[in-house]
Design a protein that fits this description.
Blueprint: E1 2-3, H1 6-31, H2 35-45, H3 49-70, E2 87-88, H4 90-106, H5 111-119, H6 124-140, H7 150-154, H8 156-159, E3 164-165, H9 172-176, H10 181-201, H11 204-207, H12 210-231, E4 234-237, E5 240-243, H13 244-249, H14 251-254, H15 276-287, H16 297-315, H17 327-346, H18 353-358, H19 364-390, H20 396-406
Parallel strand pairs: 1-4
Antiparallel strand pairs: 2-3, 4-5
Helix pairs in contact: 1-5, 1-12, 1-16, 2-3, 2-19, 3-10, 3-12, 4-17, 4-19, 5-6, 5-16, 6-15, 6-17, 15-16, 19-20
Length: about 425
């Protein structure tokens, strides 16, 4: 896709993003595709339907990226966020993912689900959105009149040392073989994707669930489409082709003025969907006085998902205004939003951003984050259930230990509450 000007390329980039996120928002609302709901169904009811839908999205994105990268049709090395960065910040991946998993359970859904719920009329999710936006923005942007961020003040000094500087990129292919990285990526991605498909479709119940199949397929294809589109926009300048990122880096040499220049170069890098950082970008856009230079892939994706969800809510007549049941419900969602804001930025993504988009690059950090999110959410749900059943008898410690026993992470002799 070659354009004669940067402005034309950027316009296509943003409009294509808008269209596919509207589709994503509508389909996710229709099919009730939800990571938190998937974990809840699995933990509380032993129902793996929505969890398989999530795995289907991962498999589709992974197989697609693996094949297209081998053919040279997508760029997933120099991306935003930098999933394959040679510094493996495993401490941040694990802690951030764990906090995010807890947070999304308290807040009734992940970042993407928050947008879906807003489109469906849920005002509780508006509060969650605002809190995430503030925290996500100041986790990576300095406070007014300062060079400090929330991350630098609260986390950097003690968690950044919990990392590993690799001699290569951190994806499975590069770690296994520096000489045959491309082939190892193809084999590893293909094998993992095919194994996931076998597990997913061995379930007769899943094979008969049109919504779960539709949700998983569409989300996976949307992730893949964004990777392809963002990797293949080129600008023809002085009879040479430049990627959007390369053009941005050479802006002073190629452009006549700063008209139409994005605020940051990573806004036009190869990328796919993630939602915590973009929710933060929404606050940055408002804070800037709606500066056009702040309009980005992430900001457009937030708007598109909300609008797509709203359209489906109106078409299906499922739009409902919902507010907090009581002060406890308010506090729970507030706590969840805070944890999602901190955890999502620290882990460099959410259930979509790391769990599907990041995993599609075979990045080790993304895989660590994925497992940490699921663990944090599952543990929280189990503890909530024990506290609900046993009420005052179930202290935090008893519920925690018993839940860990249920998850076979502690011996059964340590059980504090009878199994429910």
């Amino acid at each position: 896709m070659v354009f004669e000007s940067f402005a034309e390329g950027l316009s296509f980039f943003l409009w294509s993003t808008f269209i596919i996120t509207v589709i994503m928002g509508a389909v996710v609302n229709k099919t009730n595709f939800c990571t938190m709901g998937a974990v809840s169904d699995m933990v509380n009811m032993g129902d793996y339907g929505r969890f398989r839908a999530w795995l289907l999205a991962i498999a589709v994105a992974l197989l697609g990226v693996t094949g297209l990268e081998y053919l040279g049709m997508v760029e997933v090395n120099n991306t935003f966020p930098p999933y394959r960065n040679g510094q493996l910040v495993f401490g941040e991946n694990i802690l951030g993912g764990f906090l995010f998993g807890i947070g999304m359970t308290f807040a009734s859904g992940c970042g993407n689900k928050t947008l879906i719920r807003i489109g469906g009329g849920n005002l509780k999710s508006v509060l969650v959105f605002i809190i995430i936006a503030l925290i996500a923005w100041y986790m990576i942007n300095p406070f007014p009149g300062s060079d400090k961020t929330l991350f630098s003040v609260l986390f950097y000094d003690w968690i950044r040392p919990i990392s590993a500087d690799l001699s290569s990129q951190q994806d499975i292919g590069a770690v296994i073989s520096a000489e045959n990285t491309a082939m190892v990526r193809l084999v590893a991605g293909g094998l993992i994707g095919l194994l996931l498909l076998v597990f997913i479709f061995r379930s007769a119940d899943f094979r008969s669930s049109k919504d779960n199949i539709l949700g998983g397929m569409v989300v996976g294809l949307v992730i893949l489409t964004a990777w392809y589109t963002s990797s293949n926009i080129a600008v023809n300048a002085d009879d040479s082709l430049y990627s959007m990122s390369d053009y941005y880096s050479e802006w002073d040499m190629l452009a006549e003025d700063d008209e139409g220049k994005p605020e940051r170069g990573n806004a036009v890098a190869a990328q796919s969907f993630t939602f915590i950082n973009p929710i933060g970008q929404s606050y940055g856009f408002v804070k800037s006085g709606f500066d056009k230079a702040m309009i980005s892939f992430g900001l457009i994706s937030v708007i598109g998902v909300i609008l797509g969800s709203l359209l489906w809510s109106l078409i299906s007549r499922s739009f409902r205004i919902e507010w907090f049941v009581d002060i406890k419900d308010f506090r729970t969602h507030l706590t969840g939003a805070i944890l999602m804001g901190f955890g999502g930025v620290m882990a460099m993504g959410c259930t979509i951003g790391q769990g599907i988009t990041g995993v599609s690059t075979l990045a080790i950090g993304s895989i660590l984050t994925l497992f940490s999110i699921v663990f944090g959410s599952a543990l929280t749900m189990k503890m909530q259930y024990y506290k609900l059943v046993y009420e005052d008898e179930a202290s935090f410690f008893k519920a925690l230990v018993t839940s860990l026993v249920d998850m076979k992470l502690l011996p059964s002799s340590m059980r504090k509450l009878d199994a429910v």
